[in-house]
Specification:
The chain is of the alpha/beta class and about 270 residues long. It is built from 11 helices and 10 strands. The protein is globular and about 50 Å long. Bound molecules: adenosine-5'-triphosphate. One of its GO terms (cellular component) is plasma membrane.
């Protein structure tokens, strides 16, 4: 079928519109598995024998002082940084160290950076629409022929992120918090299996933080969510299990109460704030 025929065939399902069919295999183990990972930058060990396991559907908070290796760890998972040694697996089938960044993203690993990067001149709805198309050049075509199921997905995501009432407003007029939720919504359009979220509540009001806590906890279960955050009040409000990184390794892991009472953690990290 030619591209022109595809365009005029109302029943044709474009490859770029099909949701990511994540083939990740979690039947016998975790969704994310890092073992003995090491990364050095000019001789400095940013990641040092790091071991980390995230279960399917889990919400995990990662904390740690500046320079602990949190960003580098996210960069390794998404393929931005290659470790010197170690293993990184997504389910039991996908060795992430053999894959590039776009392939890792298309497996269903979504990453939300600290700063919101929504398209301010587009409406909330259009931002979500755009997030669905992997080939951004086809957006005008996509808008003209959008199938009901894609509209349904946008409606579903609008409800999840609480922006239904603002669907036709330009993203540029949204508050900082609303932009962050919209960007999370853009990631959700592709139905990711694992979401990596970097400092989601930096710069948010108390109310926005509460709403973000509700959003992230509501996502867990359906997808796995890893949140890197410095705000301890926020971490306490959402955390089930917390991992404390220090000098590129796991220093402690457990409930917020367990890690915040751990003498090593108090010494190297929470002690900083006391
Ligand atoms: N590309 C790089 N080149 C050299 N050093 C780097 C590079 N990336 C990170 N580092 C160093 O590796 C260490 C870990 O950095 P990383 O950004 O992962 O820490 P972090 O826990 O995310 O810190 P923060 O909480 O401040 O964001 C730091 O000492 C940092 O300076």
């Amino acid at each position: 079928m030619s591209f022109l025929q595809e365009l005029t065939d109302r029943e044709h399902v474009f490859e770029f519109l099909t949701q990511v069919k994540s083939p990740v295999d979690v039947r016998h183990g975790p969704i994310l598995y890092l073992e003995d990972v090491n990364v050095s930058f000019d001789g400095f060990k940013a990641i040092n024998n790091l071991n980390l396991t995230i279960d399917d559907g889990e919400l995990r908070c990662i904390i740690g002082p500046n320079g602990a290796g949190k960003t580098t760890m996210m960069d390794i998972i998404t393929g931005k940084t290659r470790p010197d040694t170690g293993s990184v697996w997504f389910g039991s089938r996908h060795n992430l160290l053999t894959m590039n960044e776009p392939d890792i993203a298309s497996l269903g690993i979504g990453r939300k950076f600290q700063k919101p990067t929504v398209f301010e001149a587009l409406t909330v709805f259009e931002n979500l629409e755009l997030a669905m198309a992997t080939d951004k050049r086809v957006l005008p075509t996509l808008t003209a022929i959008m199938k009901p199921e894609y509209r349904d997905r946008i409606d579903e995501v609008l409800e999840m992120i609480g922006l239904e009432a603002l669907r036709d407003r330009l993203a540029g007029i949204l508050s900082h918090g609303q932009k962050q939720w919209l960007e999370i919504g853009m990631l959700l359009m592709q139905k990711p299996r694992l979401l990596l979220v970097d400092e989601p509540v930096a710069g948010m009001t108390e109310q926005e933080m509460e709403r973000t806590a509700e959003l992230l906890t509501s996502l867990a279960g359906k997808q796995s969510v890893v949140v890197v955050e410095h705000d301890m009040g926020f971490v306490r409000s959402i955390a089930r299990k917390v991992t404390v990184l220090h000098q590129g390794s796991v220093l402690a892991e457990g409930s917020m109460d367990q890690v915040s009472n751990d003498p090593e953690v108090i010494k190297v990290y929470l002690g900083e704030e006391a």
